[in-house]
Amino acid sequence: MHIAIAGNIGSGKTTLTKMLARHYGWKPNFESVEFNPYLDDFYADMSRWSFNLQIYFLNKRFKDVVEISKSKDTIIQDRTIFEDARIFAPNLHAQGYMSDRDFENYCDLFDLMMSLVRLPDLMIYIRSSIPTLIAQIQKRGREYEQSIRIDYLQGLGTRYEEWIKGYTGNLIIVDGDTCKFEANPEDFRSITDKIDANLYGLFS
Questions:
Q1: What is the pLDDT of residues 61-90, one digit of tens each?
Q2: Which residues of 163-187 are buried (b: 16+ CB within 10 A; e: fewer)?
Q3: Mean of per-residue pLDDT scores for the chain
Q4: Is the pLDDT of residue 146 over 60?
Q5: Model-level pTM greater than 0.90?
Q6: Is 196 a known active-site residue?
Q7: Which domains can be identified in the chain, with CATH numbers?
Q8: Closest CA to 152 of 97, 73, 192
Q9: φ, ψ at 53 (rounded to 5°)
Q10: Catalytic site residue from 64, 78, 84, 102
Q11: CA–CA separation, 85 and 33 (whole Å)
C-alpha cells in the first residue's frame, strides 16, 4: 500500500511519518530537505529560483511514486507529488514568484506525469493554523526557514484547503492545532484508530 501524509510547512508531517512507520512497521519515504541544492537560494530570492526548485521537487517526487508503485512494502510518504503541483507551484505563480511561461511549462510536465500514476491508498492531511505552523517552524530551527513570510504560509494554507475539498481519494484529516500526536499518546491513538477503521475495517 501507499500511505501519504500532506500538510503545510511545519505541520508535523515528518514526525507523524516516523511515528506511523514505527507503529505499523511501514517503510518511510521522507521529503529531502537537507540535501536540496536549491532551498537556500530559493528562500533568498524566490522569483529567481522558484521554477528550479519546483522542477527539482517534481522530479524527485515522480521518482518516488514510481519506486513506491513497484514496491511490495507498505510505504508511508512524507509529502506528495500532488502538493507540489496543486499547492506550491500555483501559490508561487499567484504571488508573482513564477512567470506564466514557467508555470505553464511546469503544469504540462505534471499533467504528463499524472497520466502515469494513481492516487495513494490513503491520504492523511494535517490541518494547522498559521500560529501553530510558525511555532513549530521556530521550534525546529531550520535556518533557511526562518525567513519564510507569513503571507506565503497563508497562501499555501488557502490552497491546501481548496485542494482537500476537491480530493477524491481515500482521506483522513488530522487537526494539527488540537491533536498533539507527538506529545500525547491518546492523540496519536486517535489517529491510528482512524487508520485502522479506514484500511482494515476496525472500529467502524
A1: 899 999 999 999 999 999 889 998 999 999
A2: beeebeeeebebebeebebeeeeee
A3: 91
A4: yes
A5: no
A6: no
A7: 2-200 (3.40.50.300)
A8: 97
A9: -65, -45
A10: 78
A11: 18
